[in-house]
């Protein structure tokens, strides 16, 4: 066996171990797009709460009218649907380009480890909404999303773990400072996604 | 120059077998079809190599049914993991000797 052969053998083993255990087709651009949707959503939410609810009086910005809550909820759902849709679309495209399959044991494990904290968090937030604890929604979103990313990061790029940790920290800060939920939400889901997505795009996709 | 072939595992001489083993060592278990997609080999080819590894007791086979479809998944045994590590060591030694 020639030395060159051994090297190619070893590098093929390495790449296989990595590809079989990590899902590397996640698209960085979809992170950027999710961030942009979140910024648009946050702006719409801000308009709904701060402009239309109040006339001339100051600090009447309580989110307790059902119509406002419903509209905010619809904005959030729209942002979520668009982000997930774009994410799936771009990831499928990315996988095709790399000649990988999208639906394989790794992506299944990745999805499962993301979905457990997300589903628990989502239900928790719906329950809080139902019981009227609106102030905890932004911190809970950030916190559970961060936990989901950290748990999913075992099956994809390690960078995802750092995004998750940043989201967790933001969530805790948001919980410390009630009233600034929207700002933290905008940083966490908007700016961080754009930053992370661009880093991923230039680091892995090109 | 004579190269030491100590620990050089005959079962891994075939490239596909070594590749199968690397996937199974990196994962808890892997099913037949996913393995086929990943390695881009034909059914028959993959099956025969899996059979050979099974005969060496390097891998364990679990057959289950997903609804009506049979689903066979493979996992590396402890013996297989050790053999894989030894084989990598042997490759490493080969490189060192050639320097």
TrEMBL record, chain A:
Task: State which residue ranges cross the membrane.
Answer: 21-46, 66-90, 110-130, 136-157, 169-196
Question: Keyword Transmembrane helix on this protein?
Answer: yes
For this UniProt record, give its keywords in alphabetical order, as a comma-separated list: Membrane, Transmembrane, Transmembrane helix
Q: What is this protein called?
A: Uncharacterized protein
Lineage start: Bacteria, Pseudomonadati, Bacteroidota, Sphingobacteriia, Sphingobacteriales
UniProtKB/TrEMBL annotation, chain B:
Q: What InterPro entries does this protein's entry cite?
A: WH-like_DNA-bd_sf (IPR036388), WH_DNA-bd_dom (IPR027395), WH_DNA-bd_sf (IPR036390)
Per the record, a Pfam family? Answer: HTH_34
Q: Which residues form the Winged helix DNA-binding domain?
A: 16-95
Q: Which domain of life is it from?
A: Bacteria
Recorded hits in PANTHER family, A to Z, give:
BSL7504 PROTEIN
Return the protein name: Transcriptional regulator
Q: What is the organism field in this record?
A: Pararcticibacter amylolyticus
